[in-house]
Amino acid sequence: MTSTPPAFTFRPVDPLTDAELLHSWVTHPKAAFWMMQDARLEDVERAYMEIAADEHHDALLGLLGGTPAFLMEKYDPAHRELAGLYEPRSGDVGMHFLTPATDTPVHGFTRAVITAVMFRLFEDPSVQRVVVEPDVRNTAVHALNAAVGFVPEREIDKPEKRALLSFCTREQFEKAVTA
């Protein structure tokens, strides 16, 4: 029997009050695939202000006991990130997540995070499929994606990286997390 996953809650990122925290997360060497290593605090603030103003992109903080524990972004892949790179379907939603680096890792934490993110996305009955496009070199996230039901389709070239386009339907997710 598996342990009970942590009870995460979510709130929208506040670009001004959360920028310092997010800056420390996205510029850490372990967050290299987030591609903000050289970002200044103002750059992070500006990036999340742009997301907050974008009708096709949202950023949320995942909280554990009221304390920020991870970052989640969801986006409309027909309009952001993957526009023109694949044939979107009605009910597709794109997703990114970031767990901050820690000196005291908790076994299973990142898997609990991606599971919570997926549950959050599928709470919306209009979401039929989650789309991700991680860097092809990010083998750790490929394993996490597979654990929650993602199936790679193909590699694609984005302006900033070679990515592994992968999909997870509601049914694939349910099967993966109840197995």
How would you describe this structure to a colleague?
The chain is α+β, with helices and mostly antiparallel strands and 179 residues long. 32% of the residues lie in helices and 28% in strands. The protein has five helices and seven strands; from the N terminus they run βααβββαβαββα. The protein has a seven-stranded mixed beta sheet with strand order 1-2-3-4-5-7-6, with helices on both faces. The longest helix is centred in the middle third of the chain and has 14 residues, at 109-122. The termini are close together. The model has no long low-confidence stretch (mean pLDDT 90).
Provide a brief overview of the structure.
The chain is 32% helix and 28% strand.
What kind of sheet is the major sheet? 7 strands, mixed
The computed structural class is alpha+beta
The number of E-state strands comes to: 7
- Which sequence of SSEs, written as H and E, runs from N to C? EHHEEEHEHEEH
Shape: globular
Estimated share of beta-strand residues: 25-35%
User: How many angstroms separate the termini?
Assistant: 11 Å
- Average pLDDT, rounded to a whole number, is 90
Oligomer: single chain
Strand order of the largest sheet: 1-2-3-4-5-7-6
Low-confidence segments = none
Question: Number of helix segments?
Answer: 5
Percent helix, as a range, is 25-40%
Query: Whole-number radius of gyration?
Result: 16 Å
